[in-house]
Amino acid sequence: MKKLYSSQRTRWLYIISIIFLCLMTIGLWRSSQLLEKPKIDEEQKPIAITLSSGAIEPIPLVRKLDERKVDLGRNLFNEPKLSKDNTISCASCHHLDAGGADPKRFSLGINDAVGVVNTPTVFNSEFNFKMHWSGVVTTLEEQIDKPVYSERVMASSWPEIVSKLQKLPEYTSVFAKIYPDGLNSDNIKNAIATYERSLYTPNARFDRFLRGEQNALTEEEKEGYRRFKAYGCVSCHQGINIGANLFQNFGLFGNYFEDRGNITKADLGRFNVTGNEEDRYKFRVSSLRNIEKTPPYFHDGTAETLEEAVMLMGKYQLGRQLSDQDIELIVKFLKTLTGEYQGKPL
Ligand code: HEC
Ligand code: HEC
Predict the structure, then answer these.
(1) pLDDT 10s digits, 71-91
(2) Rounded to two decimals, what is the model's pTM?
């Protein structure tokens, strides 16, 4: 002992290195905690991703949901009484047989009011980090207030809706069975959101590939995926929804909006939510799941085909002129992102 502590200096060095080691251990422990991703599904088993994709995750095969709420939510989703004049339901714009979106550039709401942005899909919306092109709301429940109150969409209110539905025993009896406090706006929202959570589309060929089925993709589709990664599409389109987990400027290279012309308020994107100058023209990166099923593309619905959308992404988001072959291969890859709803391809 005497030898070890023979000089004051060695003693201090010894103490300092112990403190340093402790700090390192705490740091490592904390970063391992941060890396642990929140589980989307309690039932989900750990998924072995065989490829070095890392950034893209498959959709869980099964979600456990209360089927009574799903059924009630489905009826409410298709219920025109949610709108002021009983003409518009959620399904008027979100067509499940058109990828959960609207084939029109802009949907028509109450009194044929024309929308200001293209209608996105309701499929897999639970996996979006925020809702709407501008990310103005976070949860599915909160989102429902938007169409209900919007003058262009349903022009209604919860008191109006609740009083209309209260006259219908087919609703009041079902609500009473499922919810202790019966029919009210919170429970309507809960039922619709639960139905929306049932609109997930697992088992896309690409997900099967991620799960290790090498033959789920053709060589051309694999090459398309390789280019999607190599050119940097994956730096924005990533995560479980292959997008919809971050905001980015539309027009990082060149000015998309000036080139297109007629700039509208909706084009200001996230700026409309925050008022921050840096959010002007910023949008939620779109999910690319089932993308072949939801033309036209972009918030302004200007790109009619997937080829055009990919070409414009290359130009304005990557500053790269993609060759015809690049576009063809990437589109082939994108078409492998189409999943199944209730066991059938979308
Ligand atoms: C008139 C057409 C129309 C109707 C009716 C409508 N929506 Fe939408 N929906 C849209 C549009 C347009 C957006 C995008 C709005 C935006 O980004 O500003 C949207 C966005 C959404 C989103 C977010 C999707 C995403 O990717 O961010 C969900 C979820 C949704 N709607 C569900 C519903 C529900 C539930 C109802 C019924 C209560 C409904 N919608 C009624 C047109 C409609
Ligand atoms: C810097 C981020 C970024 C990069 C890189 C990027 N994107 Fe996008 N992508 C976005 C944003 C943001 C949107 C939404 C734009 C809008 O409509 O306002 C989008 C939209 C899309 C859409 C239309 C989605 C829809 O539902 O309308 C497609 C298709 C697409 N991207 C494919 C690609 C491909 C393929 C690449 C690579 C060639 C790519 N993106 C690179 C950010 C990016």
Answers:
(1) 999 999 999 999 999 999 999
(2) 0.87
